[in-house]
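REVIEWER CHECKLIST
Item 1: Sequence provided? yes
Item 2: Single chain? yes
Item 3: Sequence as submitted:
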Amino acid sequence: MKQTLLLNRFAAQAKKYLGSVHLTRMHTDQAYAMDVVLHAYTTNDAELVESAKSILGSLKVNVRLIAEIERFLNDYTRTRLLPKVQHHLRELAQYIYNIPTNGVAYRKAVHPYLAQLASHEQEFCVNLVRAFFPYWLKTGQEAEAPESMTDYARNLLGQVTSRQSFIKLWMHVDDLILSDVETQLLTHYAKTMAANGLEYEAVVTRKKIAKILIVELRGCTTEDRFGYRLMVDNIQNMIEKEDLRDFFTLVAREFYGVRRSHAGMH
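Item 4: Structure as written out by the authors:
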């Protein structure tokens, strides 16, 4: 009875912004319920937002996803981008609210989302999808271990999950063991760079970065451009010095082309 009263109160409060809320669909249509709740959040009406939160327990919605969206939006509350971010996150939620919590599912879900956007919106939304990814990861974590990284996260993000892990990986890059296929790719990259006229020392430094890229790309197909960019963006965020970050980006771009050409040869 209490939940019914809360839902009726929410519907009455939401009518000003959302129009009529179909109460039956709120219980039977998860996509609809998610959209209505998130729409309520975007009104920035504190009373309505609290009312929306009060009904979550009675609905079959992805409560963790809603919580992470709210947390993400808090970073934009004082910027002029907030309405735009709210709008596109609400749309994105319709593609990811009921998918398995693994990187492959995320990439597959966002591709059709990005494809249906107008061309002038795609660049902004590609960056939004990438930025929201670490928040989305948390929707799959167990409540009793919020800081733990589950297997899917390790597979997607590889070994670089913090600045400390990147530094550790860099310090021990020579100890990393590659498969025969990965070794062939690294050798092909080094030979390509040498053929382009780079000196020995420059090739050696690039090989170290390329080796990290190879390790981090395990499980990411050559055709998966989004997965590659996601990995590159993740590591970029771990590098504090701008000149080093720019150099890493340069090598990542070089390696991307070599990796694709190498795949075409085999």
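Item 5: Key structural point noted by reviewer: Residues 142-157 have pLDDT under 50 and may be disordered.
Item 6: Recommendation: ____
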